[in-house]
Known about the structure:
Rossmann fold, 19 helices, 14% strand
Amino acid sequence: MPTPTLRPYQQRFIGDISEAMRIFKRVLCQLGTGGGKTVCFSYIAQKTAEKGNNILILSNRTELLTQAGSSLDNIGVNAEYISPKHRKVPTTNVVVAMAQTLRMRYEREDWRKYLESVDLLIIDEAHQNDFQYIFDSNIFDKKWVLGFTATPKRSGKMTQLGIQYEAIVLGTKTQELIDLGFLKPARYFTLDAPDLSKVETDNKDGDYKSKQLQAIYDTPERYGGLISEYNRLTPNTSSLCFCANQIHAIQTCIEFNKAGISSKFLVSGFGKDDDGYSVLQENLHLTGKREDVIAEFKRGDFLVLVNAKMLTTGFDAPNVFTVILNMATLSLSLYLQMLGRGSRLFEGKDNFTVLDFGGNWKRHGNYEDDMKWSLWHTVQDGCGVAPTKICPTDKKDNEGKTGCGRMILSTYQACPFDDCGYVFATEKEIREIELREVIGGKTKFTEMSALELKAYAELNNNSMHWVYRMLYIGGGDVGFRKGMKELGYSGKFIWMTLERLKKSK
Length: 505
């Protein structure tokens, strides 16, 4: 039986999992998107099966089920697949099943007997809540359970991962995977989210309520801004676009096609009584069977694939050059899963571009940042930090006033400081607002004003020395002195700091 070729970091990851299993029965295993979780747990399944044990692999998405199956096939593991049409109790020692399918059967006596014979349960995308019934039952109380996820993060009133798992094993960080050449870095263009102060959050998952979010984004001005920025920044690129909900996804797809940008959408679970069913029926020519639409997208038959948070896990399309966030989210996990779709290697791809129309970058940071994962969260987690924006110093409002450069809440329509009063552009003016690249290398940081650099440093815990260095790299002696004066420093301090920078250059 062939053994999968493991990368060194994958070997270390599996070794760490093995060590954890010597002590704990339930272990959560984290490895970033694109790191090869499926390969890792397929290897574990293979080695466990060789010892005569029974393994059950559970997934919550068809694409994930297919990936797991393909990975097992590649290493010669004879796995049995449990589909909705599969009624017989499994007879092989490696079984792959949908969580939703198993849920409908696990209380039947014959299936319960099979489940009791399982020695190792592997759960893919374990941060999702679709596996709750497994832990609510007592079937696997004394069995080994391995959960795999790129984003071990829950929020709101979702069941704590620490209740379901005893330990967490952290794999190689995303930035290291980029440095090793296994993933592509991102460049970010961001726009402050619209006023979301009146959008409620769902108590269960802590994220925005999708219908209310859709109402904010479903405007001609927002669609116009989306189209114009795509054409300006990433024209003719293969793009994956995420929307607030299914109706929003359909309408966004329509707008792309109106603008001459070939696009299709994917939605799920639309019934005749659902809102937007008539819109769906009128636009069936812009969609199709899930597998067919995805295949067309991968072939490059159209440019933009629009969805409503469907293609966040299990969707592997290396040809994605642009990820469009046509929505805002409070969920760090969702944010990272969406961005991860663009990180795969592909010929001619040096990086992928993020067009962020929801202020998500300010809320969550870069997908390559070092995340502090934990099995526990507070009930309020997932609400993120309050979205912010910088009162601009490089533009005037309709009354001719220039901003003050302070960082303020994004919900403010006018700067709240008495000595400023800058009025921000309204929704109707979004066509004139351009996304600004906020990160993507030193050259982009050096394009920021001094006040923007200081605000960014405070938000990301960067030192002021970093600010000084960016000012010097970007503007030389003259630019540095000008920026330091904007920050309120004295001439003597500016001179001394400049001399130190020159010596360290």
